[in-house]
Amino acid sequence: MSSSKHVLGTLLLFFLSSVQAEEKLLVIDVKRMTTEAALVMAKAALEACRKKGVQVGVTVVDRAARPQVVLRDVHAPDLTLDISRGKAHTAANFVVSTRELAKNKTASSLPGVVAAGGGLPITAGGTLLGAIGVAGAPSAVMDEACAQAGIDSLIEELEMVD
Predict the structure, then answer these.
(1) Do residues 72 and 83 lie in contact, with contact meaning Cβ atoms separated by under 8 Å?
(2) What are residue 130's DSSP bridge partners?
(3) How many CB atoms lie within 10 A of CB 137?
(4) Rounded mean pLDDT of 70-96?
(5) Are residues 23 and 39 in the same domain?
(6) Sheet holding 67-72, edge to edge
């Protein structure tokens, strides 16, 4: 009887531990960028373009591609808002720069995809936090440089977060 109780107890422990392990897989922790962090990046991107004499629209989205911060400089056309949002949305969904995505003819022709430089994913510690899109500069290269300036303004702090 003692050995059968031991086997039964071992099986019960095994069953309970595997149930607990499965339960842990049902819920995950997801890191999210704060609105304050998104605002710092958006302002830094806007300022980087201002220093180049360019007025742009900037959108920062969360990891699900939902807008967190949207800024438009005084003289930037309204259209820059739609384009910057599209670039950020595309970069968040594909987790690649929109300039790189433009090289893929199949992906860049999908509905809703904005495949022009200026959209960059925001990652820290190997985790996608969101994306930033900039539109309105005379070239996609300049849009992307301003977007990168936005990310660079906070990336060290984001990398330090556990």
Answers:
(1) no
(2) 62, 122
(3) 24
(4) 97
(5) no
(6) 67-72, 57-62, 127-135, 119-124
